Amino acid sequence: MAMGCRDTLRELLSFKTSVVFWLVPIAACPLPITYAWTEFYMPAACAYVIIIMAAYWMFEVVPLAVTALLPMILFPVMGIQPSSEVCLNYLKDNSVLLLGGLLVAIAVEKCNLHTRIALRILLLVGSELQWVMFGFMGATGLLSMWISNTAAAAMMTPIGQAVLDQLFREERRQQREEESDDECSPLIITDEDIENNHHVVSSPTLKNSYQSMLTADEPVIDFTVQPQDEALLSVDLETDSKPVGTEGETARQLKMRKAMLLCAAYAANIGGIATLPGTPTNIIVAEQVQIAFPDSPGIDFATWFFFGFPVSILCLLLAWSWLIIIFLGCSVWCRSEKNNGAQRVIRKAYSDLGNMTFAEKAVLFHFVLLVLLWFFRDLSFVKLENGRVAGWTYFFRKKYVTDSTPAVIVSFALFFFPSKPPRFLCCKKGSDRARPGPVPALLDWRSVHDKMPWNVLLLLGGGFALADGVGVSGLSTWLAEQFTRLEGVPGWAICVLVCVFIALFTEVASNTASASIFLPILAKMAEALCVNPYFLMVPAGIAASFAFMLPVATPPNAIVFGYGKLTVPDMAKAGLAMNISCLLVLLIFINTLGIPVYNVNSFPEWVPSWPVCNASNITVPNTTATAMITF
Fold this sequence. Notes:
The chain contains 30 helices and four strands. The protein has helices at 2-14, 16-28, 30-34, 41-59, 64-67, 70-77, 83-86, 93-110, 113-124, 129-146, 149-183, 206-210, 230-233, 251-271, 280-292, 301-328, 340-352, 358-375, 404-414, 445-451, 454-473, 475-483, 491-505, 511-528, 533-543, 555-561, 568-592, 594-598, 610-616, 624-630; strands at 198-199, 235-236, 379-383, 389-390. It has a domain at 114-286 and 299-319 and 335-356. The longest helix has 35 residues, at 149-183. The protein is an all-alpha fold. This is SLC13A2 protein. InterPro entries: Na/sul_symport_CS (IPR031312), SLC13A/DASS (IPR001898).
């Protein structure tokens, strides 16, 4: 009997997506039916849609981007919002900001600039293992700030594995030399010594390593090894080159391999929080603030960077230190072992790239230009005499130019700017016999068509539509009334609970889906409790990126897990401490740095409930930071 029940349960679990697909809508349908003829029908119907989408996102019943289309079906059918209004949410200002950032990222990858930057950083840090890890995390984090977390992890992971393979060969060679000197034995030629001298260090195909477990959580830019990248995955050795695989690796070497894999995953996840377009959850925070509080100054690239970048840097340093402690041990600092083999493979890969091409220089120029335009668009901390803020948008109508404008300007220029220097009239060299003519642009539509993650834009749009529906249906008002029961709870305590809950939830659900579900609710919670919305929404959005414990939590985790060296207990053990330490960093920063950047210790006038909160004098006290640090 017990065996029969177990077999039945196993069969049901094999069809769990089908079970969830039918069970959740049926189980939740009493909610709108019960309130069908009452004033609470609209909030109940919107809650019904949220329950269905949350379940579908959590269990990935259908692709995440497909679930994001449900508001276009359910909102009009259930009478919550007309289709013409719902569809407007799927391409908003912040969606275009992400689109522009992705176009620039595709151009960076097309000319292979990201590989040059990563290898150059690795060359600068030296050859000792702990510093190789430091450079590896720094390069991955830097790339993740500007290209998708997934693409950064997909590119850097095989580089790290190739470096370790060469390092292990060097160790084996040195060990054989020492044994030969100690024993003074005659030269013996073994089978190992007559292996081919040219060995290709093969890493798992990147597409196979992560696409099977990939969610639409991050923009996925197809990573294909270019001819000039082959040096990263192949090492031409002049001496013995017996492959170093999992067989024959010592326990120490296996730990080093695990540490390097987790370096890539953690740095990719953490690096994305530094900039606004670094990961979709950041974009969701900015857009949800604009949806819930139209009169707010909003969150732009500069204000997010001034807060997110320091948090990212400190979390990266903590991750680096923690991985050294648990996998290499503190004694690594007492040893001075220079791994010349590792440096050789990096130097060879870098030299094989050749000199910097015209296309790389041009893309780098456009990239730097975009970052400068973002930074100096609106200097909110510099007030002018007429009340306007400084910045290049001063010369245009107020609030007409946003961060999406320079993103589109630079992206547009990439489709026109030549990828090679001009060769006509005075620009033509005397030795150049080629017939003058147009050259390809830095970016072409074929590359965009192949690499653009359109599913991410749909996923963002679904979250924006969901947030809009929460406000239109009146569910936000109902939630605000319920949250008033928490008036006696300190603001910092609510912030702690929110961040911990979202960090745990995002281990089993998509980061983007988690942010889309909870940020509209947090906006109304902040309004009801007279708490600065930034105080809850910004750390909640960042906490959604703190998914370090499980392989399915984020695409970078899935990529490194796919190499077959890590186990779930390995990731859980390392990730639990990472979650705790990064959450502590985030909570300390929102209560300290959050005061000058977002003014979180006061309740802003642009929140609709400000008159009530101001009259009741129940805003968050100025001692928030002190209370938090004391706690």
